[in-house]
Write a structure and sequence with these properties.
There is one protein chain. It contains two helices and 36 strands. With 474 residues, the protein is mainly beta. The strands form nine sheets. A five-stranded antiparallel beta sheet has the order 7-8-9-10-11, with no helix packed on it. A hairpin with a 2-residue loop joins β21 and β22.
């Protein structure tokens, strides 16, 4: 079918289509032109259609001034159809909105914010909600106000926008302390706050992490001398000096040490030693060093024995042994050594001996908890005839006299007698275990006394005068 349009009619149709927003490009795509359904006769119709330039808007495309040949469906920038273009060259794309920096709106407590964007071309607005963070830049104390900074961040049209707002925090009762790293010689501390009103300590300015005063003190490290420490001792080990270079801070320290000595005495079975310990304290840490001097074993471990013959007895005396805890008197009886007595004395009287018979005795010492059983210091002894009159010794102190005597073997009792007006009179009788007596408040004068032992149930006084002693009290 052939449609014949007059020039006026075609122009009117195109005008209506363009006014409706249909350009030749849209017409082509919608099938009105270039389709077998539409044929235009050239008789009496101008095939060129003129389109005025249309400025684009933020949301709609515009176009350049151009001409469209309805017969050839070609586009030109001039009415003479010399500069051919494509349909796409006729289109001026929409400019899009032109948003500058937004206007920011904050909530009263600064917890929320939004960014409002206004197009500078058409005045259209868009609102983007922002995420708000806060940071205390300056913490308030009892001396200074604080400062908190709120930051709003919004995403819009592929870009990120931020805005900040500051809030001044009022002073409070807190005192702020900066963190201090401990050193080798000085304590350190964490950052903390001290409430001057409650006297409490906190690790945060909001006072949510309460700690004690001990938690806000970091002890000093102390020097680390490692392998550099050197000790210089005097020849007799009575003094020492410490020198070391700290691996942590590089300081070289020389310090005079205090020296103590602890001696373990040698014995006949083991060596002794003296341990000298030097100690010095630097920055709260104590350093020590020791030197040990070995003491040789004792060689004089056997007592030297002396004897005194008595009435049916022998008195033993001996020299001291260094380190001895006690002594024992032993006798060789029936082929073996038998202990007679032990104690912490240096004398012992062996009684019950037969006069004229030879006995072998020795004295041994106990050292370091062990008996030294070397009896090479043994001596042979014999007792004198048993006499009822023991040897008496006296000690006079002003008006007081102390007499003592050697035990008499087999004695059943002792009697102390004094001579007066031509007769011997008994002053005191004592049991056999007592071998001394003390006279007190004796008047001035000369006295003759004697001691006799009771043997075999009898007192023998026939020889008492020969055994008497004289005492003079002045």
């Amino acid at each position: 079918m052939t449609h014949n349009f007059t020039k006026r009619t075609l122009a009117s149709v195109l005008a209506v289509l363009c006014a409706a927003g249909s350009t030749p490009a849209s017409l082509l795509t919608n099938g009105f032109i270039g389709s077998a359904a539409l044929t235009v006769s050239a008789e009496g119709v101008d095939p060129l259609t003129h389109f005025d330039a249309v400025e684009p808007t933020c949301t709609k495309d515009g176009n350049i001034e151009y001409w469209w040949d309805l017969l050839t469906l070609k586009f030109y920038t001039d009415a003479d159809c010399e500069n051919e273009i494509t349909i796409y060259d006729t289109i001026i794309p929409a400019t899009g909105h032109s948003y500058g920096e937004p206007e920011w709106t904050w909530s009263e407590d600064n917890s929320a914010a939004s960014a409002v964007f206004t197009c500078s071309a058409c005045g259209e607005t868009e609102t983007a909600e922002a995420a708000v963070t806060s940071e205390k830049k300056v913490y308030p104390t009892h001396e200074n106000e604080g400062l908190i900074v709120y930051t709003a961040t919004a995403e819009f049209d592929g870009k990120t926008y931020t805005d900040t707002k500051e809030e001044v925090l009022p002073t409070n009762t807190l005192e702020h302390f900066d963190a201090i790293e401990p050193t080798c010689t000085k304590d350190g501390q964490p950052e903390f706050w001290w409430d001057l009103q409650t006297l409490k300590f906190y690790l945060d300015p909001d006072c949510t992490q309460e700690v004690t005063i001990f938690d806000v003190t970091y002890p000093k490290y102390g020097h680390d001398f490692g392998d550099t420490a050197e000790w210089n001792w005097s020849d007799d080990f009575s003094s020492a000096t410490f020198t070391g270079t700290c691996a942590r801070c590089g300081e070289t320290v020389t310090e005079k040490a205090s020296v103590t000595a602890e001696t373990t005495e040698p014995t006949c079975t083991s060596e002794g030693q003296t341990v000298y310990t030097a100690a010095c304290t630097i920055a709260g840490k104590t350093y020590t060093d020791t030197r040990t001097v070995v003491l040789e074993k004792l060689t004089n471990t056997l007592p030297v024995i002396t004897t005194k013959k008595g009435s049916g007895s022998v008195k033993l005396s001996w020299t001291a042994v260094k380190g001895a805890e006690k002594y024992a008197v032993v006798a060789y009886v029936n082929g073996s050594w038998k202990k007679l007595a032990e104690g912490n004395t240096d004398t012992y009287t062996v009684t019950g001996l037969t006069a004229g018979k030879t006995y072998k005795v020795a004295v041994i010492a106990k050292v370091d908890g062990k008996w030294i059983t070397d009896v090479s210091n043994a001596v042979e002894v014999t007792a004198g005839e048993v006499s009822p009159y023991p040897e008496v010794s006296t000690e006079i102190n002003d008006k007081e006299v102390r007499i003592s005597w050697e035990p008499v073997s087999g004695a059943e009792a002792y009697a102390i007698a004094y001579y007066r007006s031509g007769k011997w009179r008994v002053l005191k009788q004592l049991p056999p275990s007592v071998t001394y007596y003390v006279f007190k408040n004796i008047p001035t004068g000369t006295y003759k006394i004697a001691v006799a032992a009771k043997l075999n149930g009898k007192w023998d006084t026939t020889g008492i005068t020969n055994k008497a002693i004289t005492i003079i009290i002045k």
